[in-house]
Amino acid sequence: MSQADFGPTVRKIILGGMLRQLREAARGGAGIEPAEAASHIKVTVGALSKIENGRLQRINPLYVRNLCQLYGVGAQQISELEETAVQANRRGWWVVYSSVIPDWFRLFVGLESDASSSNWYEGELIPGLLQTRAYSEALMTVGRRGTNSVDVDRMVEFRLRRQSRLEGERPIRLHTVINEATLLRQVGGPAVMADQLRHVLALMRKPNITVQVLPFHSGAHGAMTAGFNLLRFDELPGIDTVYIETGRSSNYLATMADVTRYADTFDQLCQSALSPDESATMIANVAEHHQGQAGKEPI
Fold first, then answer.
1. Which helix (H) or strand (E) is 85 found in, with range?
2. Which of 51, 109, 115, 114 is nearest to 85 (CA)?
Protein backbone atom coordinates (compact mmCIF):
# COMPACT_ATOMS: atom_id res chain seq x y z
CA MET A 1 0.00 0.00 0.00
CA SER A 2 1.54 3.30 -1.09
CA GLN A 3 1.27 6.60 0.75
CA ALA A 4 -1.15 7.77 -1.95
CA ASP A 5 -3.62 5.07 -0.89
CA PHE A 6 -3.96 6.37 2.65
CA GLY A 7 -6.72 8.73 3.75
CA PRO A 8 -6.24 12.28 5.08
CA THR A 9 -5.80 11.32 8.75
CA VAL A 10 -2.87 8.99 8.16
CA ARG A 11 -1.34 11.37 5.61
CA LYS A 12 -1.29 14.12 8.24
CA ILE A 13 0.54 11.79 10.60
CA ILE A 14 3.05 10.78 7.90
CA LEU A 15 3.65 14.41 6.94
CA GLY A 16 4.02 15.51 10.54
CA GLY A 17 6.56 12.78 11.22
CA MET A 18 8.59 13.77 8.19
CA LEU A 19 8.61 17.44 9.24
CA ARG A 20 9.77 16.47 12.74
CA GLN A 21 12.58 14.34 11.29
CA LEU A 22 13.67 17.17 9.00
CA ARG A 23 13.71 19.62 11.93
CA GLU A 24 15.78 17.27 14.07
CA ALA A 25 18.22 16.63 11.20
CA ALA A 26 18.59 20.28 10.18
CA ARG A 27 21.86 22.22 10.42
CA GLY A 28 24.05 19.24 9.88
CA GLY A 29 22.30 17.11 12.46
CA ALA A 30 22.39 19.69 15.24
CA GLY A 31 18.67 20.17 14.84
CA ILE A 32 16.40 23.17 15.34
CA GLU A 33 14.51 23.75 18.57
CA PRO A 34 10.68 23.65 18.37
CA ALA A 35 10.46 27.22 19.64
CA GLU A 36 12.54 28.54 16.73
CA ALA A 37 10.58 26.55 14.16
CA ALA A 38 7.26 27.67 15.63
CA SER A 39 8.38 31.31 15.66
CA HIS A 40 9.46 31.02 12.03
CA ILE A 41 5.90 30.25 10.90
CA LYS A 42 4.32 32.45 13.60
CA VAL A 43 2.51 29.72 15.54
CA THR A 44 2.79 28.49 19.12
CA VAL A 45 5.00 25.58 20.10
CA GLY A 46 1.80 23.70 20.89
CA ALA A 47 0.53 24.22 17.34
CA LEU A 48 3.86 23.03 15.92
CA SER A 49 3.60 19.92 18.09
CA LYS A 50 0.13 19.23 16.66
CA ILE A 51 1.53 19.60 13.14
CA GLU A 52 4.36 17.16 13.85
CA ASN A 53 2.00 14.67 15.52
CA GLY A 54 -0.57 14.88 12.73
CA ARG A 55 -3.21 16.21 15.11
CA LEU A 56 -3.89 19.59 13.48
CA GLN A 57 -7.22 19.55 11.67
CA ARG A 58 -5.76 21.36 8.66
CA ILE A 59 -2.10 21.84 7.75
CA ASN A 60 -1.40 25.05 5.84
CA PRO A 61 0.84 24.13 2.86
CA LEU A 62 2.59 27.50 3.34
CA TYR A 63 3.68 26.33 6.81
CA VAL A 64 5.20 23.27 5.18
CA ARG A 65 7.11 25.34 2.62
CA ASN A 66 8.43 27.82 5.19
CA LEU A 67 9.49 25.09 7.62
CA CYS A 68 11.24 23.16 4.86
CA GLN A 69 13.12 26.28 3.78
CA LEU A 70 14.22 26.83 7.37
CA TYR A 71 15.38 23.19 7.52
CA GLY A 72 17.38 23.49 4.29
CA VAL A 73 15.23 21.06 2.27
CA GLY A 74 15.63 20.93 -1.52
CA ALA A 75 13.02 22.32 -3.90
CA GLN A 76 11.86 18.92 -5.17
CA GLN A 77 11.18 17.58 -1.68
CA ILE A 78 9.45 20.80 -0.69
CA SER A 79 7.11 20.44 -3.65
CA GLU A 80 6.35 16.82 -2.71
CA LEU A 81 5.65 17.69 0.92
CA GLU A 82 3.41 20.59 -0.07
CA GLU A 83 1.40 18.21 -2.25
CA THR A 84 1.17 15.79 0.68
CA ALA A 85 -0.26 18.65 2.76
CA VAL A 86 -2.85 19.40 0.09
CA GLN A 87 -3.91 15.74 -0.01
CA ALA A 88 -3.93 15.53 3.79
CA ASN A 89 -6.39 18.42 3.92
CA ARG A 90 -8.96 16.59 1.82
CA ARG A 91 -12.25 15.79 3.55
CA GLY A 92 -12.73 12.26 4.83
CA TRP A 93 -16.05 10.50 4.16
CA TRP A 94 -17.01 10.99 7.82
CA VAL A 95 -17.08 14.80 7.54
CA VAL A 96 -20.68 14.70 6.30
CA TYR A 97 -21.61 13.30 9.73
CA SER A 98 -19.85 16.10 11.64
CA SER A 99 -23.08 17.29 13.25
CA VAL A 100 -23.47 14.00 15.14
CA ILE A 101 -19.83 12.95 15.64
CA PRO A 102 -17.89 14.39 18.59
CA ASP A 103 -14.61 16.04 17.65
CA TRP A 104 -12.60 13.61 19.77
CA PHE A 105 -13.93 10.65 17.77
CA ARG A 106 -13.00 11.89 14.30
CA LEU A 107 -9.33 11.01 14.66
CA PHE A 108 -10.29 7.43 15.52
CA VAL A 109 -12.52 7.12 12.45
CA GLY A 110 -9.73 8.39 10.24
CA LEU A 111 -7.30 5.86 11.73
CA GLU A 112 -9.82 3.02 11.54
CA SER A 113 -10.42 3.81 7.87
CA ASP A 114 -6.79 2.94 7.02
CA ALA A 115 -5.82 0.45 9.74
CA SER A 116 -4.70 -3.04 8.74
CA SER A 117 -6.02 -4.66 11.91
CA SER A 118 -8.03 -3.94 15.03
CA ASN A 119 -7.52 -5.77 18.32
CA TRP A 120 -10.58 -4.76 20.29
CA TYR A 121 -11.69 -5.57 23.83
CA GLU A 122 -15.21 -4.63 24.92
CA GLY A 123 -16.63 -5.25 28.35
CA GLU A 124 -20.15 -3.82 28.07
CA LEU A 125 -21.43 -3.80 24.51
CA ILE A 126 -21.07 -5.45 21.12
CA PRO A 127 -18.32 -3.63 19.15
CA GLY A 128 -19.64 -1.04 16.71
CA LEU A 129 -18.32 -2.85 13.63
CA LEU A 130 -20.46 -5.87 14.54
CA GLN A 131 -23.70 -4.14 15.54
CA THR A 132 -27.07 -4.51 13.84
CA ARG A 133 -29.17 -1.46 13.08
CA ALA A 134 -31.70 -2.27 15.83
CA TYR A 135 -28.99 -2.81 18.47
CA SER A 136 -27.25 0.41 17.46
CA GLU A 137 -30.53 2.37 17.56
CA ALA A 138 -31.22 1.10 21.06
CA LEU A 139 -27.76 2.23 22.22
CA MET A 140 -28.06 5.65 20.61
CA THR A 141 -31.16 6.54 22.63
CA VAL A 142 -29.62 5.70 26.02
CA GLY A 143 -28.68 8.78 28.05
CA ARG A 144 -29.41 11.13 25.14
CA ARG A 145 -32.43 13.08 26.38
CA GLY A 146 -33.63 15.53 23.79
CA THR A 147 -31.89 13.83 20.87
CA ASN A 148 -34.26 13.94 17.92
CA SER A 149 -35.00 10.99 15.66
CA VAL A 150 -33.14 12.56 12.73
CA ASP A 151 -29.90 12.73 14.74
CA VAL A 152 -30.36 9.15 15.95
CA ASP A 153 -30.84 8.01 12.35
CA ARG A 154 -27.69 9.87 11.30
CA MET A 155 -25.64 8.37 14.15
CA VAL A 156 -26.82 4.87 13.28
CA GLU A 157 -26.16 5.47 9.58
CA PHE A 158 -22.64 6.63 10.44
CA ARG A 159 -21.96 3.55 12.57
CA LEU A 160 -23.24 1.21 9.85
CA ARG A 161 -21.14 2.97 7.22
CA ARG A 162 -18.03 2.32 9.34
CA GLN A 163 -18.78 -1.38 8.91
CA SER A 164 -17.72 -1.16 5.26
CA ARG A 165 -14.16 -1.64 6.62
CA LEU A 166 -15.05 -5.32 7.07
CA GLU A 167 -15.52 -5.70 3.31
CA GLY A 168 -13.76 -4.68 0.11
CA GLU A 169 -10.33 -5.32 -1.37
CA ARG A 170 -8.45 -4.54 1.84
CA PRO A 171 -10.79 -5.37 4.72
CA ILE A 172 -9.61 -4.67 8.23
CA ARG A 173 -8.63 -7.76 10.25
CA LEU A 174 -10.87 -7.56 13.30
CA HIS A 175 -10.03 -9.68 16.34
CA THR A 176 -12.29 -8.83 19.23
CA VAL A 177 -12.61 -10.23 22.73
CA ILE A 178 -15.98 -9.48 24.27
CA ASN A 179 -16.96 -9.97 27.88
CA GLU A 180 -19.70 -12.52 28.58
CA ALA A 181 -21.76 -9.62 29.95
CA THR A 182 -22.13 -8.19 26.44
CA LEU A 183 -24.07 -11.32 25.43
CA LEU A 184 -26.42 -11.24 28.40
CA ARG A 185 -27.21 -7.52 28.65
CA GLN A 186 -30.52 -7.00 26.85
CA VAL A 187 -29.91 -3.93 24.74
CA GLY A 188 -33.19 -3.23 22.97
CA GLY A 189 -34.87 -6.30 24.44
CA PRO A 190 -34.54 -10.06 23.90
CA ALA A 191 -35.63 -10.09 20.26
CA VAL A 192 -33.04 -7.44 19.32
CA MET A 193 -30.38 -9.36 21.26
CA ALA A 194 -31.21 -12.67 19.61
CA ASP A 195 -30.90 -11.07 16.18
CA GLN A 196 -27.70 -9.26 17.20
CA LEU A 197 -25.99 -12.43 18.37
CA ARG A 198 -27.02 -14.33 15.24
CA HIS A 199 -25.50 -11.47 13.25
CA VAL A 200 -22.21 -11.85 15.16
CA LEU A 201 -22.24 -15.60 14.42
CA ALA A 202 -22.69 -14.91 10.71
CA LEU A 203 -19.82 -12.41 10.68
CA MET A 204 -17.56 -14.90 12.47
CA ARG A 205 -17.59 -17.01 9.30
CA LYS A 206 -15.60 -14.31 7.50
CA PRO A 207 -11.85 -15.01 7.37
CA ASN A 208 -10.93 -11.51 8.58
CA ILE A 209 -13.15 -11.58 11.69
CA THR A 210 -12.32 -13.41 14.93
CA VAL A 211 -14.54 -13.19 18.00
CA GLN A 212 -13.74 -14.64 21.41
CA VAL A 213 -15.85 -14.49 24.55
CA LEU A 214 -14.20 -13.80 27.89
CA PRO A 215 -16.32 -15.86 30.34
CA PHE A 216 -17.07 -14.76 33.88
CA HIS A 217 -15.22 -17.74 35.29
CA SER A 218 -11.93 -16.53 33.76
CA GLY A 219 -11.65 -14.17 36.72
CA ALA A 220 -9.75 -10.88 36.95
CA HIS A 221 -7.92 -9.53 33.92
CA GLY A 222 -5.84 -6.57 32.80
CA ALA A 223 -8.60 -4.63 31.05
CA MET A 224 -11.22 -4.47 33.79
CA THR A 225 -11.08 -0.68 34.03
CA ALA A 226 -11.91 0.09 30.38
CA GLY A 227 -12.22 -1.40 26.92
CA PHE A 228 -9.64 -0.52 24.29
CA ASN A 229 -8.94 -0.82 20.60
CA LEU A 230 -5.40 -1.34 19.29
CA LEU A 231 -5.21 -0.24 15.66
CA ARG A 232 -2.22 -1.51 13.70
CA PHE A 233 -0.80 -0.49 10.33
CA ASP A 234 1.22 -3.15 8.50
CA GLU A 235 3.05 -0.64 6.29
CA LEU A 236 3.49 2.01 9.00
CA PRO A 237 3.98 0.29 12.37
CA GLY A 238 5.25 3.54 13.83
CA ILE A 239 1.69 4.94 13.92
CA ASP A 240 0.05 2.00 15.69
CA THR A 241 -2.39 3.54 18.18
CA VAL A 242 -4.37 2.47 21.23
CA TYR A 243 -7.79 4.10 21.46
CA ILE A 244 -9.61 4.25 24.82
CA GLU A 245 -13.05 5.81 25.00
CA THR A 246 -14.11 7.37 28.28
CA GLY A 247 -17.75 8.28 27.66
CA ARG A 248 -17.52 11.96 26.83
CA SER A 249 -13.92 11.95 25.60
CA SER A 250 -11.14 9.62 24.53
CA ASN A 251 -7.44 8.93 24.91
CA TYR A 252 -5.00 8.10 22.12
CA LEU A 253 -1.82 6.27 23.14
CA ALA A 254 0.83 5.92 20.46
CA THR A 255 4.17 5.43 22.20
CA MET A 256 5.93 2.13 21.63
CA ALA A 257 5.67 1.36 25.35
CA ASP A 258 1.89 1.86 25.39
CA VAL A 259 1.33 -0.13 22.19
CA THR A 260 3.44 -3.00 23.52
CA ARG A 261 1.66 -2.96 26.88
CA TYR A 262 -1.81 -3.12 25.34
CA ALA A 263 -0.72 -5.72 22.80
CA ASP A 264 0.44 -7.90 25.70
CA THR A 265 -2.84 -7.28 27.54
CA PHE A 266 -4.82 -8.30 24.47
CA ASP A 267 -2.76 -11.49 24.10
CA GLN A 268 -3.52 -12.32 27.74
CA LEU A 269 -7.23 -11.72 27.15
CA CYS A 270 -7.16 -14.06 24.16
CA GLN A 271 -5.51 -16.76 26.27
CA SER A 272 -8.13 -16.37 29.03
CA ALA A 273 -11.05 -16.25 26.60
CA LEU A 274 -12.88 -19.16 25.03
CA SER A 275 -11.60 -20.31 21.66
CA PRO A 276 -13.47 -18.97 18.61
CA ASP A 277 -15.35 -22.27 18.25
CA GLU A 278 -16.22 -22.39 21.95
CA SER A 279 -17.24 -18.74 21.76
CA ALA A 280 -19.54 -19.46 18.80
CA THR A 281 -21.24 -22.19 20.82
CA MET A 282 -21.80 -19.87 23.77
CA ILE A 283 -23.08 -17.06 21.53
CA ALA A 284 -25.51 -19.46 19.81
CA ASN A 285 -26.79 -20.73 23.16
CA VAL A 286 -27.33 -17.23 24.53
CA ALA A 287 -29.05 -16.17 21.28
CA GLU A 288 -31.43 -19.11 21.69
CA HIS A 289 -32.10 -18.05 25.27
CA HIS A 290 -32.91 -14.49 24.18
CA GLN A 291 -35.16 -15.84 21.43
CA GLY A 292 -37.04 -17.86 24.02
CA GLN A 293 -37.45 -14.77 26.17
CA ALA A 294 -38.72 -12.85 23.16
CA GLY A 295 -41.41 -15.45 22.67
CA LYS A 296 -42.67 -14.77 26.20
CA GLU A 297 -43.00 -11.02 25.70
CA PRO A 298 -46.59 -9.71 25.78
CA ILE A 299 -48.00 -8.85 22.39
1. helix 75-88
2. 51
Residue 57 pLDDT class (50, 70, 90 cuts): confident
Please name the helix (run of DSSP H) or strand (run of DSSP E) that holds residue 50, with its range, or none: helix 45-52
State how far the alpha carbon of 119 is from the alpha carbons of 1, 112, 243, 267, in Å.
21, 11, 10, 9
How many Cβ atoms from other residues are within 10 Å of residue 191's Cβ? Answer: 16
Number of domains the chain contains: 2
Q: Does residue 257 share a domain with residue 113?
A: yes
- Expressed as residue numbers, the domain containing 99 is 93-295
Q: What is the pLDDT of residues 93-120, one digit of tens each?
A: 999 999 999 989 999 999 999 999 999 9
Among residues 127, 87, 226, 114, the alpha carbon closest in space to that of 171 is found at 114
Confidence band of 3 (pLDDT split at 50, 70, 90): low
> What's the pTM value of the predicted model, to 2 decimals?
0.90
Looking at the structure, do residues 229 and 269 belong to the same domain, yes or no?
A: yes
How distant, in Å, are the alpha carbons of 94, 128, 136, 154, 156 from that of 151?
A: 15, 17, 13, 5, 9
